[in-house]
Structures are given as structure tokens and as C-alpha cells.
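Justification of resources, computational component.

The compute hours requested in this renewal are based largely on the per-chain cost of generating structure records like the one below. Each record pairs the submitted sequence with a full C-alpha cell output. That output is archived, and it is also reused by downstream analysis tasks.
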Amino acid sequence: MKKISFILVVISTFILVSCDKGDMEVKKLNRGEGIWSITSMRYETYDSLGVNVVSTTTREDIGEFVFFQNTTLSGLYDEHLVVVNINDTSGVIRAYSGGVYYDDSRVKIDADGSGVSGVWTIIDNGRRKQEWALHVTHPSGSLGSKTTLYMKKK
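The structure output for this chain reads:
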């Protein structure tokens, strides 16, 4: 009996260790109902050297993300389904569906037309609050703009 219990311990340890960290992180997003409010987005535009901030704009209560446990057609790459509900400037809510891929330090949102598509750097990935940043460069390679997204679990 000692040999059998030892094998079970080794197998269960292997299963726990083999779990991808990106899978654990995306579970923070889609657990429960998986709805996260986008509380604000801050837009910063930089000069041509990418050093000085030229303008800053913040939008409040932009919309929400609805993250699903279901995978997209790119499920082989651990991409999960996401719906992005965005409140446009006239107050109309528009829904965009797409995919989300989450790894250790980045989250890739692919929801064409939503305004939040891109590869975001994860600044804070808490269970109740998240903060992401999207950096866009000038053709010269210097920083052109930075968008910071703040969201909280509904």
C-alpha cells in the first residue's frame, strides 16, 4: 500500500505543478459571472521623442468586460471568449465580441472596433481590481502614447 499512495502523491503534485500561470490568471477574470466594470481609462500622448506628456485625457465609466470560461476557435492557444460592452460618447452601449489571452505579464484583447484591442501590460492583477497599460510607439520607436485601463470586479 505504501507504493500506491506514493504514486498518487507524485501524480497529484505533477498535475498541480503543470498548471500554466496564464490559466490561473484568466480564472481571476472569468470566475463567477466574469463581469468587470471599466471604471476609467487614462490616455497620455507623448512628444516625438517619447519623453514629455503632450496631453492627458481620462474617461470614466466606459463600459465592461464579460469574460467567459469558453475558449474561442484559438482555444488551442488558451484564448478565451470575451464580450466588451462600451458606452460611446452619445450614451449608446455597443457590444464587441472577441478573444482574450492572458499570460504572466500581458493580456491580449482582440475585439475589433472596441477601442481596447491590443497587448496590454499587466500592472496590477488582483482578484477584485485590475490595472493594465497599453503602449504605442512612434514610427521612430519612441513612446507615442500610453493608455491605462482601470477595472473592478462587479
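Residues 2-17 form the longest helix (16 residues). The chain is about 15% helix and 55% strand.
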